[in-house]
Write a structure and sequence with these properties.
This protein has one domain. Helices cover about 70% and strands about 0% of the residues. The protein is built from 4 helices and no strands. The protein has helices spanning about 15-40, 45-75, 75-105, 110-145. The longest helix is centred in the last third of the chain and has 37 residues, at about 110-145. The radius of gyration is 21 Å and the shape is globular. Keywords: Membrane, Transmembrane, Transmembrane helix.
Length: about 160
């Protein structure tokens, strides 16, 4: 069983508020990237690559909206979908940047900046992951709480059909 020791982030917000803020900023960033790449204002590259990046950014924006909704309603399964997609995206970007660094041999300052961004991205992911574990622990505590009269877990219905 994995637990998370983080109860609030460095900005003294609850994990739920932090997850909402991260989802909102992530959504705005992905919509901006999607619009810029789909309109081809900023980039002059192959058409299929720019459209693929724009579609991917809009898909990430949808998952960010799901994170905001999951945090608001305290639904851990919805939060989990954002965690999986973001972990895959962050690992992909880290590998892509590492290949670019080897290929282009950048200076020290861009490498330090890129490493800072990657570390920050994984910290934000970890904050949402801690919120997920908080929801999971709350759900487990609710299931373990017993009704004082029947001795059965809360939500237990002896007349319910068992499949």
């Amino acid at each position: 069983m994995m637990t998370c020791k983080m109860k609030s982030t460095s900005c003294c917000c609850s994990l739920q508020t932090t997850a909402k803020i991260i989802g909102s900023v992530d959504m705005l960033a992905n919509v901006t990237i999607g619009v810029l790449y789909s309109s081809r204002i900023v980039v002059n590259g192959p058409f299929d690559v720019t459209i693929a990046i724009a579609v991917f950014a809009f898909i990430l924006a949808i998952f960010s909206i799901l994170l905001i909704y999951g945090a608001q309603c305290r639904r851990r399964h919805i939060v989990m979908s954002w965690l999986i997609v973001q972990l895959l995206e962050r690992c992909f970007v880290a590998v892509f940047i590492a290949v670019g660094l080897v290929r282009n041999s950048l200076g020290v300052i861009p490498i330090v900046f890129i490493l800072f961004v990657i570390i920050l991205a994984f910290y934000l992911w970890w904050a949402v992951c801690c919120f997920y574990f908080e929801l999971k622990n709350e759900e487990r505590a609710d299931l373990n709480r017993c009704d004082s009269l029947s001795g059965q877990p809360v939500g237990y219905d002896e007349n319910a059909d068992v499949f």
